[in-house]
Amino acid sequence: MFVKLSANRSCFLCLLALLVTASLAAASEYRGTVTFGGLPVPGATITLAQGNKSLSTVSDQHGAYSFPNLSDGTWTIEIQMTGFAPVKQHIEIKAGTPAATWELKLLSLAEIKAQIASPVPAVPAASLGAGASEPEPPSQAAPSEGAATSPTSPEELAQLATPGLLINGSLSNGASTPFALPPAFGNNRFGGNGMYRFGLGAVLDNSSLDAAPFSLTGQRTPKPVYNRITGLATFGGPLKFRNLIQNGPYVFAAYQWTRSVNDTTTSALVPDAAERDGDLSQSAGPLGQAAPIFNPATGSPFTGNMVLPGQISPQAKALLNLYPLPNLTGSAQYNYQIPLVTDIHQDALQSRFDQIAGKRNEIYGGFAFLSSHTAAPNVFGFLDNTNMLGLAANATWWRRLSQQVFMNLGFQFTRLSTQVNPYFENRQNISGDAGISGNDQDPRDWGPPSLTLASGIAGLSDSNASFERNQTSAVSDSMLWSRGAHSVTFGGDFRREEFNYLSQQNARGTLTFTGAATAGGDASTTSGSAFADFLLGIPDTSAVAFGNADKYFRESVYDAFIDDDYRMRPNFSVNAGLRWEYGAPITEAYNRLVNLDVVPGFAAVAPVVARDPVGTLTGQTYPNSLIRPDRSGFEPRIGIAWRPIGGSSLVVRAGYGIYYDTSVYQTIALQMAQQAPLSKSVNVQNSAACPLTLANAFSSCSAVTADTFGIDPNFRVGYAQSWDLTVQRDLPGSLQLTATYLGTKGTRGLQEFLPNTYPVGAANPCPACPAGFDYFASNGNSTR
Known about the structure:
Layout: E1 2-3, H1 7-21, E2 28-36, E3 39-40, E4 45-50, E5 53-58, E6 64-70, E7 73-80, E8 87-93, E9 100-103, H2 109-117, H3 154-161, E10 197-206, E11 226-238, E12 250-268, H4 273-276, H5 314-320, E13 336-357, E14 361-377, E15 383-400, E16 405-421, H6 430-434, E17 450-453, E18 466-483, E19 486-503, E20 506-513, H7 530-536, E21 541-546, E22 550-569, E23 572-583, E24 587-588, E25 594-598, E26 605-609, E27 634-642, E28 651-660, H8 665-672, E29 680-685, E30 709-711, E31 719-731, E32 735-747, E33 749-753, E34 774-780
Parallel strand pairs: 1-10, 2-9, 17-20, 30-34
Antiparallel strand pairs: 2-3, 2-6, 4-5, 4-7, 7-8, 10-11, 11-12, 12-13, 13-14, 14-15, 15-16, 16-18, 18-19, 19-22, 20-21, 21-29, 22-23, 22-24, 23-27, 25-26, 27-28, 28-31, 31-32, 33-34
């Protein structure tokens, strides 16, 4: 179990360590990490030997070890761990030696049995370094030739004295002298040389010693409070059952659970009591004074910037009840502050296995599980709940076909489900009770519409109800061919992706207030008030999209690649390759997608549905994805590494590559699935032809198309070209200088049109042309 120390105690220990070691001769520190498959390996024995000197330590729970006081020169490092092949190598230790990472190789079961039969000698307590954690248990075997000897130099004495600075109760407590007995803690007991390992741990964390945060409002901000408890249990060893499985795979499993409560202080600007009653005389405009507001019904200014109570929209009054009253003063940007408490429960399981079959085959893989529940409030006190469940599994078959050719065949599977339950779901129909019509009245989507006010007042919002289940199945195959200075890798992948949604894009609708209604025709933005528009119930724009709630998207992704790592000279290497990537446009399992069939110049548009993909205006036939595939995704890549000066630390690296964005189709498909005639989709600008009010903001308008989204059927996937150049060199004083140039240029990016729109105050050039929809193409480019 790990418990936080107070800041004062930690400083005291650091000061004491400094006083003890200040008189010792200067020496170098050597650190490193022991890993297997990229994961830390705790409990490995690391021994350093130089002449007749030998020092040992054991890697901690993070796989890390350290030797704080070593004389400069050549040392021999040996790393031993039950079940893994030993590592032995000569290393050069001097001031500034970088930390090393040692990757262990798993032995076969027969080799493990032989290793257990001849266990590694125990690490005497006298040889433990400052980085030592838990040594191996004592062995009955006689000490080997490389066993630790008595300390003779000041450096070795310092090495032995350092563990004495550990706090009481630590696993190395009492190991500060050569006469101390081996510590006994956890698995470090007699019989610990068994083939299975277990571990238990816990981390406790809270805010009791934290400082108070900086206040954005100028008011005294309370310190956020949090409590986090994380538990961990691990198990590792060969899978073996008598008379059933004799030579099973090596397995490792880790289970972690987290319970976290976080308190975050949030600030916002909310309308005060006077503003709620229509008194806007104190509301500052862009020039720091009250901006004049005009009555849109008469065109005359409101006297004293006072909106009469009888002129306030009943829908606005109902929505204002969801806003809290101010609880602080002294800031023009914030007048409300509240602590938001977020509760998170999370459980996670990770496991892996490794089975060696003969001399040419190895099978390894893993399984992971994640479950979490989050309860998160917002500034209005709406508490939303999010539940997530994820599964992931993978398996790989590695085979050595010859001395130069190796194969990797893999399979991956992932599934993730996420469910969001907003506060008002099945609780209260805010829109219906307020008299707002035109949005979804399903109990799952009860709640207020989203409000955006340009005046700075906090926008009203809440999460949307959703239930998403995404699944990916993938097969990959790659080959490695080594010949001379070449290492050639080639292969391919296939992924089948499923995106299943039970959700609405914008069921409750979105209303935007900009102050245009009360500006009195003044385009200088020095008049009008977004909050006054809200009180009068006149939004500037409205948008809503709901219907066709369940959607089942399918996509196939392919790629093939070849890469050559060519070491031309000892100081110069080239990595060159070519990758082809193709992501098919997304289809819907029941062909419920809608695009727009557009005539040149956007003079007319008509919906085209995937189940009958023939345009009524142009007569062209569309694929069932309503977007034609783009198979031109070839991605050349090249990189070099060059050490121009022999014996120097100067290294030059450069590279160029092309990268395609095949993930763009998912966002496009979501918008195509939420359109008429499959669902209601409205995007309206307030005008004389389409007057908007809070009561009818989501009603259809004859001057606006029923669909809000269209995309060029010949849409092509965008890509980015990337250039980079890095020059790196070591400097005195353990410093390193790195200079980097990075350039990126985008091609065929998304380009958005708003057809048949025109500036405010200008005449409509095409009154009969459709408007109110976005149209996307792939003509966007960026400069490097």
